[in-house]
Structures are given as structure tokens and as C-alpha cells.
């Protein structure tokens, strides 16, 4: 991180060493950073990159382009990144943990978790769109609540956005 960005953040009262704070704000912003363990695990649309205009369907060739383009043009993505919240839980759920129905049916996978000041949880998970009204829980049975994302889930083309 550059020195001037760090200074601006510190001046704004943000502790750049507080990983939980960064994770919580990324979750609230609906942003999932893909690390080496998640490479090739998700389509860009499942991480809402299409809604963020973070993927181009008109430029170049890349591995997996055909699958990504097919999902874009046929609109057949069955899972999406969703923001969820929960009451305080110990131990903290880990990335890779399952989001399940109250009956124990797998509905999705946790990608990132952070605590709020009161101990409640902020969660980013890729969750099935089959039943968007179905209740969700952690594997341990604690209820999860869907929370809004700060952006609409719609197709956006970065080439059509004006600076």
C-alpha cells in the first residue's frame, strides 16, 4: 500500500493493520478478493463481477472464456455472492464452511467472515438462487439473515460505462 494512501486512511481514522475492519468493509461492499485457493472455483458472475462491470465480454481470450461468456449470454448462473449476517457465534465460521437450509441441505459456501463491534457477523457467501426465500443457517444451526448489497445485481458492460 502506498504511503499516501496509508496516510489518508490513518487520517480518516482507519487502522490499516486491522484485518477484521478491512474484511468487514469488503463484505459490506460486496467485494470478494480471489486468492490462490479460490482460483478456478467460481465463475466471475458468481462473485458479482458482472454486476460491478469488472469483466469484459468483448476483449481478448482467456482460459475459461467460453464458459463465462455462455453464462453471461444465456443467463444461467445458479449461484451468486450474497451478504449475510448472524448473531455472535463461537467459534467464528471459516471460509469454506457451508451455508445450509434448516434441514441441513447445502445451499452455499462461506467465502469471508468478519465481526462487527457488537460481535455479530458479516458474511460473504456464494449461495444458490434456487429458493431465494428459503431460510439459511450456518452448519452449526445458527440462523443467517440476508442483507442488501450496495449495488444492483444486473449485467453491466464496462465498455459502455462513461468515465
A few lines on this structure:
The chain is an alpha+beta fold and 163 residues long.
What structural keywords apply?
163 residues; alpha+beta; 3 helices; 23% strand
Can you characterise this structure?
This protein is an alpha+beta fold and 163 residues long. The chain has helices at 3-11, 19-29, 65-74; strands at 79-86, 98-100, 106-115, 121-128, 136-138, 143-147. Strands 1-4-3-2-5-6 form a 6-stranded antiparallel barrel. The longest helix is centred in the first third of the chain and has 11 residues, at 19-29. The radius of gyration is 17 Å and the shape is globular.
Unreliable segments of 5+ consecutive residues: none
Strand order of the largest sheet: 1-4-3-2-5-6
Please state the structural category: alpha+beta
Portion in strands: 15-25%
Characterize the main sheet.
6 strands, antiparallel, barrel
Instruction: Round the mean pLDDT to the nearest integer and report it.
Output: 82
Shape: globular
What's the count of strands?
A: 6
Amino acid at each position: 500500500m502506498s504511503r499516501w494512501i496509508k496516510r489518508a486512511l490513518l487520517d480518516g481514522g482507519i487502522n490499516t493493520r486491522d484485518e477484521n475492519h478491512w474484511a468487514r468493509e469488503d463484505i459490506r461492499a460486496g467485494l470478494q478478493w480471489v486468492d490462490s485457493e479460490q482460483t478456478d472455483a467460481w465463475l466471475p458472475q458468481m462473485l458479482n463481477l458482472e454486476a460491478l462491470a469488472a469483466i469484459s465480454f468483448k476483449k481478448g481470450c482467456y482460459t475459461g472464456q467460453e464458459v463465462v461468456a455462455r453464462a453471461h449470454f444465456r443467463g444461467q448462473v445458479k449461484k451468486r455472492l450474497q451478504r449475510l449476517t448472524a448473531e455472535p457465534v463461537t467459534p467464528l465460521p471459516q471460509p469454506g464452511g457451508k451455508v445450509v437450509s434448516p434441514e441441513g441441505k447445502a445451499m452455499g459456501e462461506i467465502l469471508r467472515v468478519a465481526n462487527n463491534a457488537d460481535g455479530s457477523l458479516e458474511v460473504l457467501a456464494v449461495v444458490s438462487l434456487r429458493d431465494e426465500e428459503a431460510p439459511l443457517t450456518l452448519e452449526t444451526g445458527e440462523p443467517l439473515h440476508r442483507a442488501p448489497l450496495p449495488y444492483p445485481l444486473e449485467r453491466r458492460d464496462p465498455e459502455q460505462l462513461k468515465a
